[in-house]
Amino acid sequence: VQLQASGGGLVQAGGSLRLSCAASGRTFSSYGMGWFRQAPGKEREFVALISWNGGSTYYADSVKGRFTISRGNAKNTVYLQMNSLEPEDTAVYYCAATGFSVYALKAYEYDYWGQGTQVTVSS
């Protein structure tokens, strides 16, 4: 599976962005998908995940109620809708695919990674 993230940019606090992650490969629908982010000088952290069939989602406490993850298996794409953005959300955002059947919250549990897209939120 190859992943290509896009949709990042510069936005003012309180604004919104929608990230997309396009996947290649016929087995996309069998993978759980996650979003992680990494701010300068910090470790990569979990943001959100969605199960292979879209039936289950899970969010980090820091984004719960503001971010929404979704997927369109017909389009081999996973999305991250980000609303009410805060300067603390500034980071490079990565999408990733996991073959784990349970909630995968750690980066090492993911098998494939996209290249990352920069999100900058100004105050």
Explain what this protein looks like in three dimensions.
- With 123 residues, this protein is mostly beta strands.
- 0% of the residues lie in helices and 50% in strands.
- The protein has no helices and eleven strands.
- A hairpin with a 6-residue loop joins strand 4 and strand 5 (45-50).
- It starts with a strand and ends with a strand.
- The model has no long low-confidence stretch (mean pLDDT 94).
Q: What portion of residues belong to β-strands?
A: over 45%
According to DSSP, the number of beta strands is 11
Structural category is mainly beta
- Helical percent range? under 10%
Shape: globular
Radius of gyration, Cα only, in angstroms?
13 Å
- Through-space gap between termini: 37 Å
- Major pleated sheet: 7 strands, mixed
- Tally the helices: 0
Spans with pLDDT under 50 lasting ≥5 residues? none
pLDDT average, as an integer? Answer: 94
H/E series: EEEEEEEEEEE
Summed up:
By secondary structure, the protein is mainly beta.
Tags for this model:
123 residues, mainly beta, 4-stranded antiparallel sheet, 0% helix
Topology:
Layout: E1 2-6, E2 9-12, E3 17-24, E4 32-38, E5 45-50, E6 57-59, E7 67-72, E8 77-82, E9 91-98, E10 112-113, E11 117-122
Parallel strand pairs: 2-11
Antiparallel strand pairs: 1-3, 3-8, 4-5, 4-9, 5-6, 7-8, 9-10, 9-11
